[in-house]
């Protein structure tokens, strides 16, 4: 929903706008935050950026290590742990 429509639906809404540089949205702060998030995620598994705000995270190795350290008695236990 666009801002003007949101204001009509909810007059008390506080909308925040993205900074603009050279007539376009300045996403530098957003990109920097994304780099930090990816660094944190990559410490837990294989991480691949798909776009500015999407990441594929493979936790297979981390899950195997977790199961080796503390094996559960049944598949139901794995589900409950997750």
Strand tally is 4
Q: How much beta, percentage-wise?
A: 15-25%
- State the end-to-end distance: 35 Å
Spans of at least 5 consecutive residues with low confidence? none
Secondary-structure-derived class: alpha+beta
Largest sheet: 2 strands, antiparallel
Number of helices: 4
| Number of structural domains | 1
The succession of helices and strands, N to C, reads HEEHEEHH
Return the average pLDDT rounded to an integer: 86
Protein name: UmuC domain-containing protein
Domain UmuC: 1-66
Subcellular location: Nucleus
Pfam families: IMS
Key descriptive features of the protein:
82 residues, two-stranded antiparallel sheet, 4 strands, 18% strand, transferase activity
């Amino acid at each position: 929903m666009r801002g003007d429509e949101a204001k009509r639906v909810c007059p008390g809404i506080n909308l925040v706008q993205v900074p603009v540089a050279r007539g376009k949205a300045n996403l530098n702060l957003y990109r920097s935050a994304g780099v930090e998030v990816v660094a944190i995620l990559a410490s837990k598994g294989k991480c691949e950026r798909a776009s500015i705000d999407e990441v594929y995270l493979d936790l297979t190795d981390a899950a195997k290590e977790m199961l080796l350290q503390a094996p559960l008695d049944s598949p139901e236990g794995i589900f409950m742990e997750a």
